[in-house]
Amino acid sequence: MELQSLIYLFVGISFTIYFGLALWTKSTSTKDFYIAKNSFTPISNGVSIAVDFISAVTFVALAGTISYIGFDGSAYIMGFTGGFVLLTLLIVPYLRKFGKFHLSEFIEARYYSRFARNITILIIIIVSFIYISAQMKGIGIVFSRIFQIDKEIALVVAIFVAFLYSLLGGIRQVTYTQIAQYIIILFAFITPIIFLCLEFTNGFLPHLALFSKTTFAFDTGIKVIPEGTFLLHVLDSSLEDFGFSYTKALGLLDIFTISLSLMLGVATLPHILVKFISTPSVNDSRKSAFWALIFIAIIYTTLSPLAALSKLNNIKHTQNVEYEAFINDEIKFQNDSPNNGKWLQTWQDIGEIKYIEKNNDGKIQINNSNSNELFINPDIQTLVNPEIANLPNWTIALILAGALAAALSTMTGLILITTNSILLLFVEKEIAYNSTKFKILSKLFLLIIISLATFFTIPYYSIIKTITISFTILAGTLFPIIVLGIFNKNITKEGAIVGLLTSLIFMLVYIIYFCFINNDINSSDEYLFGITPIGIGIIGAVLNFIVAIIVSKFTPKVPDDVILLIDNLRSPSINQKESL
Fold it and tell me: Is residue 354 in a domain?
């Protein structure tokens, strides 16, 4: 079947499954739209958590980013995975035992302050808004390829689809559809990597690709690397030939601060934490975390191999080929197999790939200098891999369907938590959940949030860097206050509020200045300690910890009922069935 028809077919089938499941499991009440009523087993909840965690960032952008920046990309893998471990061990058991739906309710109870609660809600809204904007960029890229339209038009289509999907999907429906989405994501993500492994290595398991050897002599255009060479050596040697410093870190401090900021931010992701309320007990929450780790690991352990294979895939199929003949599918390898290049023209028309002829030889040249002629947006590398490698058309259609599944699943949970946070600022939850006013306002806020987030852009920031900004804000604000609230009985409401405001104001000023006002910096000389905006969360967290502890020493003591609450949270009675 022709490629475009297959794309429509695969995407159409996947949407039919999602909307069918959403209608079949439709919420019976507005409250059920936002809370899943403890109705899921640890395995199903683990799948749902894994899909939320993977998102469009992992599926679309992460491997491409690692492929593009090399060693520095390890900061993202360490940050995301390490953060989930922190979340499951340090945060989840205690917040699940507390048993409330919204993170702000824990802050209000622990710090006996409605003002602290409102600050928390504001932070969640800011963070979720930035997170949604990154997801919408991913959806826009996928729609632009599916329909072969300009990205701006694709974003308008994305608004409509995201709004419709969010209307049908409450927390309950989302969990059911995410089980189907994980299956699609898994097959869509892994299948092209298996094909690449078979093409480049003597194995087929993506998770072991980095330890495999090549099955052919790899011609870089500068030298021929013999058959049987380890894949990592081929990668390193090839990139050195083209001037890339792929295995050399650009800044150890950046890697450290970005990794740590991501860890602390991931540990307090509100749309992930709410999923643990869907389990009957604290013990089931821990089981959900265990299963989620397994489902996440299946995907995440393929990211580094995919990044390496992507780089080699680009070199093999595009380096030193004649551009005009390539885009007209007239190029063949020495063994007479085709090296089709129509994909290059397609993605150029969309605006995600740029080819600029610089030496007038009519051939594509890839290197790490000013003479580089081909730039592939790292955000699309995973999506374009099957087309570059001339894989079967169904793999191209499958990966687009998988990317759409990854983006929509996470975005729905984010929109729900953001809408609920906004409404909590205006009306009491008990009234809101059962009122017509709540239903009308929630739909209005859904549309406003999606529309504004779609066209929000941080200049020069990719999807992965945009989403890291949201994590770094969480790292500096909510993580310290939650940890102190659980493990330190002496932190008062005054200490928590001043600590939150200090870190929030500091980070917002820093991010706004260096991302929007003075964003033409080519070196880190003007950064505080050389720390980029995406890694500033660790400094915000240190400020938060210090200020909260110091202020608490000079303010009235924590009330006795709050002390009892903390003692109850930290007691080992994990098998009881806590109700919402």
Answer: no
Is 507's pLDDT higher than 90? yes
Residue 111: which CATH number?
A: 1.20.1730.10
330 belongs to a structural domain = no
- Please report the pLDDT score of residue 580 as a whole number: 38
Q: Where in the sequence is the domain holding 116, given as residue range(s)?
A: 3-314+393-570
Which residue's entry shows tokens 């549309």? 447
Give dist(CA 398, CA 166) in Å, integer. Answer: 23
Cα–Cα–Cα angle for 418, 427, 162, rounded to 5 degrees: 25
> What is the tally of structural domains in the chain?
1
Residue 580 forms part of a structural domain = no
Question: How far is it, in rounded angstroms, from Cα 312 to Cα 238?
Answer: 8
Residue type, 340: N
- Separation between Cα atoms, residue 41 and residue 71, nearest integer Å: 39
Q: Using CA atoms, how far apart are residues 232 and 208, in angstroms rounded to an integer?
A: 12
**What is the residue whose two structure tokens read 């081929």?**
234
Rounded Cα–Cα distance for residues 287 and 278 (Å) = 12
* 332, part of any domain: no
Q: Is the pLDDT of residue 302 over 80?
A: yes
Q: At what angle do helices 436-454 and 151-168 cross, to 10 degrees?
A: 160
How far is the C-alpha of 61 from the C-alpha of 379, rounded, in Å?
Answer: 4
Q: What single letter denotes the amino acid at residue 343?
A: W
| DSSP 3-state percent helix, strand, coil across the chain (nearest 5) | 70, 5, 25
> What is the per-residue pLDDT across 58-100, written as a single tens digit (0 to 9) for each?
888 899 998 888 778 888 999 999 999 899 888 988 888 887 7
Provide CB contacts within 8 A for 164, sequence distance 6+: none
Tens digit of each residue's pLDDT (9 = 90 or more) over 235-279: 877 777 665 554 444 567 888 999 999 999 999 998 888 887 767
